[in-house]
Protein: DNA primase large subunit PriL
Organism: Methanospirillum purgamenti
Amino acid sequence: MVTLDRKDLAKYPFLKESQSYIGTISSSLEQYLQSPGGKHAIKEASTTMQCALSFNGRELPPLPDIPPDAESITNIIASYPVSRIIVSCAQDRVLIDRLVRYQSWLVFAFLQDESSDVKRFIRKSIGLPETGTEISVTDYIPVASRMQEERWRLINRVVIRGKVRVAPLEYDEIVRERLRYVMARNLPIKVPSSICELLQPEVDNIKSEWQKHILEEFGKVEESAFPPCMQAILGAIAGQGHLTHMARFAISAFLHNIGMENTRIIELYGNVQNFDLRKTMYQVEHISGRGGTSTEYISPQCATMRTHGICIHPDSLCQKINHPLTYYKQKKREISKKNLKSTSEQKESRQILDKAGKKKSESGGDSSNQIPSRADGGNKDEQGT
Ligand code: SF4
């Protein structure tokens, strides 16, 4: 039997033990959120959300300080359900995913320096075997489905009698992904509207932070940087061609991922045969996660596009990427580099022409035939000829 100290409870706030530690902190949630303790927890939850939005999901996140006093521990533990309430009020699947990804990685970071007793306890609490190096296929599949590396694919694992073999060093990664799955499973939760109203400033703040992140990551929507597949689907939409369900999903998710407003995406479908506004709104909102379900919202990767026959006219850049979003980012970078180059060339030409004009007015003569070209004019001036 493991004994968890207060610090352990703050490190692992998802545990039943942590939630019972804070017990009944107020007679009602509404009252608590308005109390000084509740306000601290809201602040703590907002900080968690900020970290979650900027976390890249590749390296261990920095570990937060956990002050030892009971009050701080209570605030940290309480901020866990508060952060879940905030993303539930936001009704945005992307925010939910960002939050659970960050929180599960935080646990993973803490586990790196954890006693084997606590590790065993955590495994058990999330439904994994305490010891051993195998997990059932049914538990393994939802966990491994988000792992990109080839080694996690079921065909690359040893499976004996419905159990998947996992190396001891991989186990913390399994815990992290299982936790992510478990944490996301019940989100969004149903929150009374009075609570969401109370948390509206935090919800708005997180949403606008997220918009800023999208803008930083993808910038303004630049149609000329769309990959050939998305251009082709847009072409089919404009030409009233037939669109498969997968093609609709791919383009809607892609446009949502690069930051296009839902209303703009819905407008695009206006040309599609048998356009049904209500149905389209429903589908687009689901893809963007606003429909309150766990529907997938990331545009499919190239391999999936290929399987569905919608990887159309791949070009040379397609050889170097495996996701339409990566294509878009790289192409956009290329375009802005080109634009930058041509702007500086134009600036250079303007400077040369200005110089020539100045020279003409100084000499007072008609030197229209002597306006230096970009190739030789600058040198002539410098050489004083
Ligand atoms: S390779 Fe990928 S990005 Fe390129 S056209 Fe195919 S699906 Fe689109």
